[in-house]
Amino acid sequence: MMEWKKRHSYFIQWFIGMGDLIILNLMFFVVFQMLGDIYTGAIRPVMREVILLLNFCYFFALYFVPIQLHLSVVFIDKLVQRAFMLVTLLIFFFATCLTFMNISDLLATFLVVYYGATVVVLSLWQVIVRICLKAYRKKGLNSKKVVIVGAGKNGMEIYKVMKNDLSYGFKIMGFFDDNISLQQVLPNYLGLTNEVETYVTEHDVDEIYYTLPGTQDEKLLRLLNFAEKNMIRFYIVPEFYRNVKKSLVMDVIEYIPLLSVRREPLQAAYNRFLKRCFDIVFSLLVLTLIFPFLYVIVGLLIKMSSKGPIFFKQRRTGLYGHDFECYKFRTMRVNDDADKKQAQKNDPRTTKIGTFLRKTNLDEFPQFFNVLLGDMSVVGPRPHMLKHTEQYSALIDKYMVRHLAKPGVTGWAQVTGYRGETKTLEQMEGRVKRDVWYIENWSFFLDLKIIVVTVINMFRGEKNAY
Q1: Closest among 152, 185, 158, 154 to 172, alpha carbons compared
Q2: What is the structure's pLDDT at 70?
């Protein structure tokens, strides 16, 4: 039975992989026919070799971006991210190989079109397959048999999560616990902890979830050794999870395991490099293509509206709490409260052109100079004035955590309803909560999503911006 289930999972994995290959090859021929000989003529004499090379590059890319069928919970943005990474690596390897064949220069347009089209189609395929797999698992197929050892708070919580959505693919057989009185209240009491081995063997259980307190080390070691010998996956829910309701991150120093209180994707050098490269390219495009025209028009309107400079400079808190000079188009009359008081609704200090600039986010465009200089990023927690940092860091526990990432021209809090004045402490807590969530869940695709929503809001106008 267990052998059949393993083959069943391998078949699904093989099916997804074959689907990937079919799409990659199909899109190759579609783009090839669509572009014509001008862009694809160099391929025709070596078509067979190029196709074989493309398929070889897929298997090579798959080594770095594997099909993660074993994960029961996968979100759509992660599927799209996987498709993007897979196709990016594939095209990189493919283009490198074509360079050695001395035909890559003639295929630049073909590769760009093929890359864009394949990312879109492969993303759709990955999402559709996962939706179908969830529906398949919801019927009880391709599911994993699991038992939970320990029926305390942690045991009941993991039971509720697994039972919450059948499409996760968990078939919960029941609980083992030495507190016999619990059998009257548990959904399915299977027996004492010394009966786990017998039950698991007889019922072909796939996974054991251990939630007993850490004081019962003897039971833990016994069940762990049993699971290892019988090739059963063994998971431990730490006892302190009852008090620390967070997604902790495992790390290792040599052989010593460490738990970090938060996941920070931007701690990885590759992610920081990717984000910085994007910041440089994006800010250069904005500063060369848009900013010169904006400066002339907006600068003239600012000068006509009130006396003072075109730019407004203010010291704000940046990465790791270091101050930096933040630039904006001036939207207010020159006043002594600029570094102390937030802009408010119907603020008498704001000029008419200033109100327009704030509602459309155009006042933030000079901050792309800050991005280019490295003080800011295109996306990140918005930088606050020094007075706010001093004030709220004393009132909100996780306030300073938001400075573990570079501040941004736009951010997750701003596109989810927390832009503009924060009248109450609860509003600032909501903003900080979203800033910390962004740091813990950063991805390149999340940045792109925030940028797109920001651009949409620029044309739609922000009701909270004044």
Answers
A1: 158
A2: 44
